[in-house]
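User: Just a sanity check before I run the rest of the batch. Below are the structure tokens for the first item. I only need the designed sequence back.
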């Protein structure tokens, strides 16, 4: 009976990993929650990245305003984030990080 807890545990881990599968599959289209974390960590120096803080960005546009601009599109944001900018540091973001951030910015449209 000593094995019992271990078996139960491995079943629990298996179930947990199975539950994570949809999340992994989603990452190719961008995960808005990790995009939010990247944005909070990397972009708040200049941008307000969350609707709650709109208006406190230093000189760069608020992400919620970017999201709501009619000219904003996923492909436009991706192109912007993959290219170099005079006023923005070059982050050399990985494609998955760009997808996550774009997914996050676009999620602000609904807020
Ligand atoms: C050092 C300041 C600074 C940092 C840090 C910064 N930005 Fe910016 N960003 C700017 C400025 C200034 C602009 C507007 C001028 C421009 O387009 O170059 C801008 C513009 C943008 C735009 C275009 C907005 C529009 O009107 O379409 C996006 C998208 C953007 N930033 C995303 C990001 C993301 C994502 C990060 C973090 C990974 C980031 N920025 C970090 C300064 C910054």
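Assistant: Here's the designed sequence for the first item:
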């Amino acid at each position: 009976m000593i094995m019992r807890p271990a078996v139960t545990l491995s079943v629990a881990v298996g179930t947990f990993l199975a539950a994570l599968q949809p999340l992994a599959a989603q990452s190719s289209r961008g995960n808005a929650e990790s995009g939010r974390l990247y944005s909070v960590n990397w972009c708040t120096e200049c941008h307000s990245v969350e609707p709650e803080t709109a208006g406190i960005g230093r000189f760069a546009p608020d992400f919620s305003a970017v999201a709501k601009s009619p000219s904003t599109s996923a492909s436009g944001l991706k192109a912007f984030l993959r290219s170099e900018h005079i006023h923005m540091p070059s982050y050399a973001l990985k494609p998955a990080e760009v997808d996550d951030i774009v997914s996050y910015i676009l999620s602000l449209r609904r807020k």
